[in-house]
Specification:
Layout lengths: L11 H15 L4 H8 L3 H8 L7 H11 L8 H9 L7 H8 L4 E6 L10 H13 L5 H20 L5 E7 H5 L5 H15 L4 E6 L13 E5 L5 E6 L4 E4 L2 H17 L3 H15 L1
Parallel strand pairs: 1-2, 2-3
Antiparallel strand pairs: 1-4, 4-5, 5-6
Length: 279
């Protein structure tokens, strides 16, 4: 039988497959024997080992059971989650972990609606743009959208949903994403968001000019112990900040932005006016 040599460094999927093969061979098992222990065919195991098929969560958990890795640190499940997060910006998975526990979430963005407020169609259109530019693969785009929907669902399903405060630069509602229908639905979704009992929505108008304190995405999370962490993004990576010396000036600037932005009523009126222009 021809043996295909693996390069574990070629991709995270290849590293997963190479590790599975190494552990299988160390036990003297054939692919069929491992497949029987995992509930899959030997052919399926082979495809995973040579990275012809990407691993799934079910595969990873089955491998942990077969190799007796349950309860240890370096599980196949953990490796699968690292693969999955490979579609996300550096630093973002850590932010999501904190977001799921935050009691208050404050958002600001320029040029695009923040993720927690996006419709699926809007999110799909944004990621399609990244794919068209060659920045990510179609599979990574799908994974990013799935992670976003999971984030939104997790926030809504919590017994006590967090307070979500969003301030959007006016460019967020005027920049058309996905065409007129997608954008119209997205703007309608913003209005619905503003009507929820645990939300606040404001628009930072263009007229603020140089008084707008931020030029990029900023998220501030208040945790259960009342500490605040900040998340900022560049084009290529995200950064989670916990140091008070860095976070407190951002909180202060956010409060100043809130004071100068349009009220929620004025903001909703502006959104509806823009939406009428997209119909």
């Amino acid at each position: 039988m021809n043996r295909r040599e693996l390069n574990p460094e070629s991709s995270p999927e290849a590293a997963f497959g190479a590790r599975m093969r190494s552990m299988r061979e160390a036990r003297g098992w054939t692919q069929d024997e491992l497949g029987e222990r995992m509930g899959y065919s030997g052919r399926h195991v082979s495809a995973i080992e040579v990275a012809r098929r990407p691993p799934t969560l079910r595969i990873a958990c089955a491998a942990d059971v077969a190799f007796g890795l349950e309860g240890v640190v370096e599980t196949f499940e953990r490796q699968w989650r690292e693969i999955r997060h490979g579609a996300l910006l550096e630093g973002f998975p850590q932010y999501v972990g904190h977001e799921g526990r935050a009691t208050e979430i404050r958002l600001f963005d320029v040029g695009a609606i923040p993720g927690p407020l996006q419709t699926r169609e809007y999110a799909v259109a944004i990621e399609a743009g990244h794919v068209q530019r060659g920045a990510i693969t179609p599979e990574q785009a799908t994974e990013r959208v799935n992670v976003l929907i999971e984030r939104q669902t997790a926030l809504k399903s919590r017994p006590l949903p967090p307070m979500v405060i969003a301030i959007l630069d006016e460019s967020c509602i005027r920049r058309s994403i996905g065409g007129s229908e997608v954008m119209s639905d997205q703007l309608a979704h913003l209005v619905e968001f503003a009507e929820l009992p645990n939300t606040s929505l404001q628009i930072a108008p263009f007229a603020m000019g140089e008084r707008r304190p931020f030029n990029h995405l900023l998220n501030l999370l208040t945790l259960s112990d009342r500490s605040v962490v900040a998340y900022v993004e560049s084009q290529t990576q995200g950064c989670l900040e916990r140091e008070a010396a860095i976070v407190l000036p951002l909180v202060r600037a956010y409060h100043q932005l809130q004071a100068e932005a349009c009220s929620q009523a004025e903001s909703v009126t502006m959104i509806n006016q823009v939406r009428e222009g997209t119909l």
